[in-house]
Fold this sequence. Notes:
This protein is mainly β. The protein has one helix and 13 strands, in the order E-E-H-E-E-E-E-E-E-E-E-E-E-E. The strands form three sheets. It has an eight-stranded antiparallel β-sheet with strand order 9-5-6-7-11-3-2-12, with no helix packed on it. Strands 4-10-8 form a three-stranded antiparallel β-sheet, with no helix packed on it. It has a two-stranded antiparallel ribbon with strand order 1-13. A hairpin with a 2-residue loop joins strand 6 (61-66) and strand 7.
Amino acid sequence: MSSPVQVLAPCPGTVLAIADVPDPVFAQEMVGPGVAIAPADGPTTVVSPIAGKVLKVHPHAFVVLGDGVGVLVHLGINTVRLEGAGFEVLVEQGADVAAGDPMIRWDPATISGADISTVVPVVVMDAPRGSVTSDAVGSHVVAGDLLFTTA
C-alpha cells in the first residue's frame, strides 16, 4: 500500500466493530478489516468513502479503488437476495469519483427478509487482519465523517 488513505462514512448511523457484523465472512475479516455502520432509517444516498475509480458496482455493494487501496461498501447482509429491489444505483462502473460522491440510494427501513440485516460493512480489501482500528466505534456518524485511516 502507498500512503495512508482516510476512509469516510458512506452513510449516517452508528459505527460498529467489524466483529459485530452478523455475518462471519465480514466479522472474521475474511474480506478485509474495517468497521460497519448500523444505518439510520429513512431514504439515504450512500456516498463514496474515498476518491478513486469505481471498480465494481452492484445494487447492494460497491468497490472504489484509490491510491492503491480498495474499499468495499456492502449495503446490508444477504441483501444480494433482494436482486436489486430497494436500491437505486447512481454511478457507473469505471467512473472516477471523489470522496462524498453519490453512489447508491436506499432506505434501510424498507429492507427486510429472512437473515437479512441492514448493517453496512466498510472494509479495506486485501489488507491484513486487524490492520484497521477506529476511534469512531460506538459513535454516531454522518456521511463524510472520518471512519478510519488505512495503515
